Amino acid sequence: MGTSRLRESTVGYLLVLPASLVLLVFVVIPIFYSAGLSTFSWDMMRPQPTFIGLENYTNLLQSEGFYNSLGRTFLYAILTVPASMAVSLIFAFLLDKGVRWAMTMYRSFFFAPIVTSTVAISVVWMFIYHPDYGTANSILKSIGIAPLRWLNASDTALISLAIMAVWKHVGFCVVIYLAGIQAIPSDLEEAAKVDGAGLFRILFQIKLPLLTPTVFFLLIYLTIEQLQTFTQIDVMTKGGPAESTELIVMHLWKYAFERFQMGYASSIAMVMLGIILLLTWIQMWLVGRKVHYQ
């Protein structure tokens, strides 16, 4: 018995070894390296960084640019996370019921981001938002609304990126929601129908409570994902106009690869790691207690 258990344990460790090595090399080691680098001043030109202790963190906490980019990042997450979850939940329920137009729209419109790179998506949306011949302004003109400058105006650029982000994440969220919906035992819905429960009662009193683990997972996943948004901003706006779309990761990138202040950029990364961990813990403490597991 002991030999068999040892063999099973050995096989298990060997199976998780490749993933563990990838996690160690590309996640754990870089985190500790970045934490150490944040206590140095280094412009990548000098062979030896200069140790300065917590000076980078002191400068960071006194930086108006850091707080502005952090505020825009939170605003962006507030605009995108609830909308992505709500739209995808509606489509998931429609797809579960076999609504034909919802299936067609999902396959042709919302599933594309799952199999398309973010760079390609960003280029397409740049044409959509073009102020002269973009699709968005063509639609506005057709219904009698004045065209907008979208990515070229400070007051609409962040909202424009948020609209694209919602569309980008709906396809993935629908897949996760559908898995959660289809895992709900069908006999619960049948019993509710026998008792005279209508569609909305079944939805809000049976399916949604049993779907809370899925909702909870997507809430944490999307929050972390949106707080780290970078690629579409780098392609579409470079943080402009007038820094209106310079989110925290873009702010970090500029200090690292434009100003070559690697220690200061590492301190931004470590502060953001702490903020993400704190927000995740708060979500687990506030929302996790309301999750109903079967």
TrEMBL record:
- Which top-rank group of organisms is this from? Bacteria
Q: Which CDD domains match?
A: TM_PBP2
According to its record, how does it sit in the membrane?
Answer: Multi-pass membrane protein
A single GO cellular-component term on record: plasma membrane
Instruction: List the GO biological process terms.
Output: transmembrane transport
Which residue range or ranges hold the ABC transmembrane type-1 domain? 70-283
What is one Pfam family matched by this protein?
BPD_transp_1
Which PANTHER family does the annotation name? ABC TRANSPORTER PERMEASE PROTEIN (PTHR30193), INNER MEMBRANE ABC TRANSPORTER PERMEASE PROTEIN YCJO (PTHR30193:SF37)
- In Swiss-Prot or TrEMBL terms, this protein is called Sugar ABC transporter permease
Species annotation? Paenibacillus thalictri
